[in-house]
Amino acid sequence: MSAPGVCLPLSPVATVSAHAQLHARRSLSSFVMPVMAALLLGALGTWLAVNFVKAPAYFFTISFIGLTNGAVYALVALGYTLVYGILELINFAHGDVFMLGGMVSATMIISVFNLHAHESGAPLVVAIVSSLLVAMAACGLLNATIERIAYRPLRGAPRLAPLITAIGVSFILQNVAIGWKNVSYVAVPPVLPTSNVFSISGVVYTWEKFIVVIVTLPVLLALIWLVQRTKQGKAMRATAQDRDAAAMMGINVNRTISFTFLIAGALAGAGGLLYALYFGQVRYDTGFQLGLIAFTAAVLGGIGNLPGAVLGALCIGFIQAFNDGLQWHSPGSDWTQSIVFAILILILVFRPEGLLGERTPEGT
After folding, report:
1. Is 159 among the domain residues?
2. pTM for the full model?
């Protein structure tokens, strides 16, 4: 008998048998999981196809709602993916920065410009553009300040410390919103025009949806240009790849990270304005709910990947719109959040790097 606490080495036969069992389990897993994914995608495709055949015009109308929702989610998801790409930090306070952007926008529209329902003409354009600039500036500065005070001192700490700090900052911002606007909804009058952009064979697209896309698209294109074509964008990409090497090459890493938080906050401010205008109300917990959806979109597309964040946001927007609006065997709006987070779980199981993400040595 062996002495207590002493492990004898396995025999060669036992070792070969253990490796064979492990290989068999991996082979089974690698076969079953793609089959399950294919079945789920097949069921989803069948459901969409049947709904399209039954009511094609209604299907396209619902799709435009999904496009609009996805455009709002994209602005918030890009903020998550920018910060994660440069610091590998999930900034859970980002959704609450978005919420404060919505409240700032609502205050500008109601108290500063005193807009009323179905406003039109130059006053509406001036109010929207001014509110957009103020919300982006306020949220950008707020986000950069949060990075300087809460995250920078913990940059060398274990990853759990800044994550817990981000959750704490999220609750602080929610309490700031409660102290400012109370717990009730801040209502925004329906100032966006509701007339049709076009109506073709029963497919209707209205201006309040189109304006959201009009505002979102230039912001997204400007961000891609900034990251890909400018000197500051090159500094951001270099810092994301290797902070120490970037510092040795003369890049001011702290300033680059603060600039990234500034841009992410500005995107959240733009998203807050569009949310307040399109959905007509914002509350202290709006950022928590929509922030989780936007984070799911970023993970779905491949967190750290800008086009992936946009793709994931559009996918989530379409999924929500189809689930809420389609009539043939739709689960209904009560199941929307459960479906969104079930998709997040499936993505993490089947393709943890996301739709457009790449596997890294950490993720293998």
Report:
1. yes
2. 0.83
